[in-house]
Automatic annotation (TrEMBL):
Annotated organism of origin: Haloactinopolyspora alba
Region (Disordered): 119-143
Highest taxon, organism lineage: Bacteria
Active site feature: S187 (nucleophile), D273 (charge relay system), H302 (charge relay system)
PANTHER family in alphabetical order: CEPHALOSPORIN-C DEACETYLASE
Protein name per Swiss-Prot or TrEMBL: Cephalosporin-C deacetylase
Length: 336
């Protein structure tokens, strides 16, 4: 697909009006308080991944509703002190896969925590976490309209809560430095990252790669591809529910989280992306309240920068984790 969205010069200034419900903050405070009523009960079981230089733990913890969420924790073999850590979230349909899928960041000497996504894990990479809650309304195949008539029942209320609790689970491990945690993800994982960057205090940064789950209405108006197309399909049948649907989605829109996030952030965008249109990405980026950078991949679709973007992330991550190193901090330079 050739360039189809706004010109880059306009995208850099694009700051669309946000649609936000007046109880947005109360909704998320209540949601996280309800989740906190369940003990985190994070369990780390040593796992034989066949590695010699990385230790792996098979993780479970209590997410939304106390439901058990799976994950991985990877740390350099023999680590004995708390490490800076990257908490990673997964793209749409994918699961946590296997530990060898997540070696890039642990190769720097930091720890990596990977959250499985409830109900997913049958597209691309396998997952191990069911979603025992549905929603009262019929839905378009996929996850975008599951419970979409009620913010309390909407699927991503559970996922975003799981993701906040994933940070809590990670920092409960003695080899994770709770003061140096960066959250990261691409596509759906990028949208989850954007939400967690606003909802979970104390983070050091966020790497938000070609994010999904932002600018819902514009996305459905300019592309018909999945997953946003699930919303369009649903509304093509349930014609009388448009405002109710977008009212629910406003509680989960990345722009509304971006304006509340003050952590340093590294974004990426692909200008030929028909899945997550560039204007939806720039909408969140331009609303992000904290220090921010964006890497632009002009001739790419939803794959974005791929290995080139990972290189950008590694360099950016090094600078974030080195910020507190130096005399008097009690922390040595960990990056080799």
């Amino acid at each position: 697909m050739p360039l189809f969205d706004l010109p880059l010069s306009e995208l850099r200034e694009y700051r669309p009006e946000r649609s936000e419900q007046p109880d947005f903050d109360d909704f998320w405070s209540r949601t996280l308080a309800e989740a906190a009523a369940f003990p985190l009960d994070a369990r780390f079981t040593p796992y034989d991944a066949g590695f010699g230089l990385v230790d792996v733990y098979d993780v479970t913890y209590a997410g939304w509703g106390g439901h058990r969420i799976a994950g991985w924790l990877l740390v350099p073999a023999g680590a004995s002190e708390p490490l800076p850590t990257v908490v990673q979230y997964i793209g749409y349909g994918g699961g946590r896969g296997f530990p060898h899928d997540w070696l890039a960041f642990v190769a720097t000497g930091c720890a990596t925590f990977v959250m499985d996504t409830r109900g997913q894990g049958s597209a691309g990479t396998p997952g191990d976490t069911p979603d025992p809650v549905g929603g009262d309304n019929p839905q378009s195949p996929g996850f975008m309209t599951r419970g979409v008539l009620d913010p309390d029942q909407y699927y991503y209320r559970r996922v975003f809560t799981d993701a906040v609790r994933a940070v809590d689970a990670a920092v409960s491990h003695p080899l994770v430095d709770g003061d140096r945690v960066v959250v990261a993800g691409g596509s759906q994982g990028g949208g989850i990252t954007q939400a967690v960057a606003a909802l979970r205090p104390g983070l050091m940064g966020a790497m938000i790669d070609v994010p999904f789950l932002t600018g819902f209405r514009r996305a459905t108006e300019i592309v018909d591809t999945l997953p946003y197309g699930e919303i369009s399909t649903y509304l093509s049948i349930h014609r009388d529910q448009e405002e109710q649907v977008f009212g629910t989605l406003s509680y989960f829109d990345g722009m509304n989280f971006a304006v509340r996030s003050e952590v340093p952030a590294l974004y990426s965008v692909a200008l030929m992306d028909p899945i997550c249109p560039p204007s939806t990405v720039f909408g969140s980026f331009n609303h992000h309240a904290g220090p921010k950078e964006i890497r632009v991949w002009t001739y790419n679709k939803h794959e974005g920068g791929q290995t080139f973007q990972i290189r950008e992330q590694l360099l950016w991550l090094r600078e974030q984790f080195k910020r507190d190193d130096g005399p008097g901090t009690g922390r040595g330079t960990w990056w080799r």
